[in-house]
Amino acid sequence: MRIIAAGLNYKTAPVEIREKLALSEQEIADMLAGLRASKSMMEGVILSTCNRTEVYAVAERKEQFMLDLAYIMERKFNLSKEQFAASFYVHEDNAAVEHLFKVTSGLDSMVVGETQILGQVRDAFLYSQSLPATGAVFNRLFKQAVTLAKRLHTETRIGQKPVSVSYAAVELAVRKIGALAGKRIVVVGAGHMSELAVKHMQARGADRIIVINRSYDRAAQFAGRFGIAASSWETLPELLSEAELVMTATGAAESVITADMLRRARLNRSEPLLMIDMGVPRDIDPLADELDGVTLIDIDRLGAIVNENAEARAKEALKLTPVIQKERNDFALWMKELGVAPAIAALREKADAVRESAYQDMLKKLPELDERERKVIGKLTKSIVNQLLRDPILNIKELATGRGGEAAIEAFTRIFGIEEETRRIAEPDAADADGEDDMRNAIA
């Protein structure tokens, strides 16, 4: 089994490419189903955010998996082979595990140490698990990644400075238009990004914020939490005519503010208008930046100010490299032990069957035993079996994680005559829930 992490992010692909792969839950489900149907992927999790789309897979062959992934990218998401080759990175095994740990901990984010990605990774895993598209390997790996990220944010200073894309957007707005107090501000969208932006703007003195959303009820609830005004979607053109600052983060599939809409709005005013688009896909038509009196900032152009505020976090991140590597090595050891788990489970299964058969024969030959005596003998026979198995199991675990581990496992199964049982437990299609429990118990 190989663990593969393949994807693109804000470092490897511009927003025009990333917005093509801003996947809905249904698209993620379809993509995972397609990859599993192709037999090139045994387990999968897809992480899709405004700054990255990554496919994590447990696969037998990396080459076949990447061919199938490239085919889906081209056919379903209109990403050419050239764009795929130029934008996608691939990590394998230990490198893939380390990459996931860094992503989940915020060490690979545009804003180093940000915590939003932790929840996004957790949600991506839980959704894939619900399909179900995960198994023993990813159930373990993603739980470890989330636990590690929580610990790093609690025990270090990696997340102390308040930097995020929304924070950077507000800082940039202050630089461009000055103090926010008294400025007419329109926030388009009522999601998490907009919530952070409003918090940061109010902290900088903003007191004339109006939120607008396609669902007025959601806009009204959002406004109630922050003591600001809400307006219906139909009033957007009118609000654009009056605003001095517009911030957007809707998650819509296409632009919600067009250049034509802005041209009409500009006819009614003379003040400059600053527009900050935090959405992927973009909420504002890029042509808006060409209009007189309009300054448009998209999410990629926020990178510079983000970097200014991230220097301290970057220094802290360097200190975390040994911690990440230790966690990576711990998982690699678990993976090696996972290879021997079917053999251990098969040995225990055979030993339990032999013990139970001998115990039942004894009961038939000694019918005068009372219930207490039977329990005592039952516990004694189980204890004998466990003591006999203890050293062989400890030794094969040690041998399996070293050089020549596969040969050691093969010899182990032949010595105890458990080849067939081991194959039955190891094969996912043949193994039932009890077999999976046996493997987990064997590792414990």
TrEMBL record:
Keywords: NADP, Oxidoreductase, Porphyrin biosynthesis
This enzyme's EC code(s): 1.2.1.70
Binding-site residues, NADP(+): G189, A190, G191, H192, M193, S194
One GO molecular-function entry: glutamyl-tRNA reductase activity
Record-annotated Quinate/shikimate 5-dehydrogenase/glutamyl-tRNA reductase domain positions: 171-303
Keyword Methyltransferase carried by entry: no
InterPro entries assigned to the protein according to its UniProt record, in alphabetical order: 4pyrrol_synth_GluRdtase (IPR000343), 4pyrrol_synth_GluRdtase_dimer (IPR015896), 4pyrrol_synth_GluRdtase_N (IPR015895), GluRdtase_CS (IPR018214), GluRdtase_dimer_dom_sf (IPR036453), GluRdtase_N_sf (IPR036343), NAD(P)-bd_dom_sf (IPR036291), Shikm_DH/Glu-tRNA_Rdtase (IPR006151)
Enzyme class: oxidoreductase
Reaction equations catalysed: (S)-4-amino-5-oxopentanoate + tRNA(Glu) + NADP(+) = L-glutamyl-tRNA(Glu) + NADPH + H(+)
Task performed by this protein: Catalyzes the NADPH-dependent reduction of glutamyl-tRNA(Glu) to glutamate 1-semialdehyde (GSA).
PANTHER family in alphabetical order: GLUTAMYL-TRNA REDUCTASE (PTHR43013:SF1)
Entry's family note: Belongs to the glutamyl-tRNA reductase family.
Notes concerning its domains: Possesses an unusual extended V-shaped dimeric structure with each monomer consisting of three distinct domains arranged along a curved 'spinal' alpha-helix. The N-terminal catalytic domain specifically recognizes the glutamate moiety of the substrate. The second domain is the NADPH-binding domain, and the third C-terminal domain is responsible for dimerization.
Miscellaneous field: During catalysis, the active site Cys acts as a nucleophile attacking the alpha-carbonyl group of tRNA-bound glutamate with the formation of a thioester intermediate between enzyme and glutamate, and the concomitant release of tRNA(Glu). The thioester intermediate is finally reduced by direct hydride transfer from NADPH, to form the product GSA.
Protein name: Glutamyl-tRNA reductase
Lineage of origin: Bacteria, Bacillati, Bacillota, Bacilli, Bacillales
